[in-house]
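Request:
Um, any thoughts?
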Amino acid sequence: MYHSDQNPYAKFCDHAVLTKAVNMLIGIVEGIAFDDSVNISEIELLSEWMLFHQPYERLHPFNEFFPLIANALEDGKLDEAERDDILWLARKVAGDEFEQRTKGDMQVLHGILQGVIADGVINQAEVEKLRDWTFEHEHLQRIWPFDEVQSLVTSVLSDGVITNEEHAMLMSFMSDFCELKPESAGGLIQHSVMGVCAMCPEIHFDDNKFCFTGSSSRLNRSGFEQLIRDLGGIAHPRVVSDLDYLVIGDLGNPCWAYACYGRKVEQAMKLRKEGARLLIVHENDLWDAVEDSR
């Protein structure tokens, strides 16, 4: 059975961590073929690799590996063509292509934001196309500012109308990531709480670190910390560099009326800008994950 001495996904999709996981897969596939035969125990080893990474099966690139390996193992065998298919994909991901694709797509996103605000006006069609682009590039989740952009445009489009306030908010937010800023971008505009929370986040508890901010209608702070521990997670009182999730309580925080969201959200946003892969999530999404884990 494939085991690890620690959870390597504290910051999922870190390139070094991803490469280690994929290189392990390459080694397994090559190793079981060294004797030119594949037995049931070796097939089970590939199944164990999938089981170990199951919490991430819907995230790129594991969402490509899982169906490929599952189809290959469906008949209880692994022939040469199936091995070659797995190795081909693994080597492409383990090389520079995945990292370069991610960097390239983020550069494209920054260019899109500049293009959208270039004329000082953000219209409905532009926001809809930006939303569609984010849905087509969800492998960028956890990378600043993808989650914030996706959440903002989805929230703005929820009622089918872009108000003057929402327009100013979008213009201000997008201009923060543009080298060329139109004069109409204006100064800092406060964003809604939902505008910084990730859309439909993947929340996993085992060995992941959680921090809570604001107030909850369901639990006090100690109750939240106990819930996280009961589910195998780690409750942390502060926002730290290796935090996985900052949970925003459904009752918000009175500080958000006077300072940008509150101290912890501000710290989390700063860490995301610096490259940390933590997610800012709304309490409602946390409860959905709790239900799914039971």
Q: What stands out?
A: The chain is about 50% helix and 5% strand. The longest strand covers residues 209-213. Residues 96-117 form the longest helix (22 residues). The radius of gyration is 22 Å.
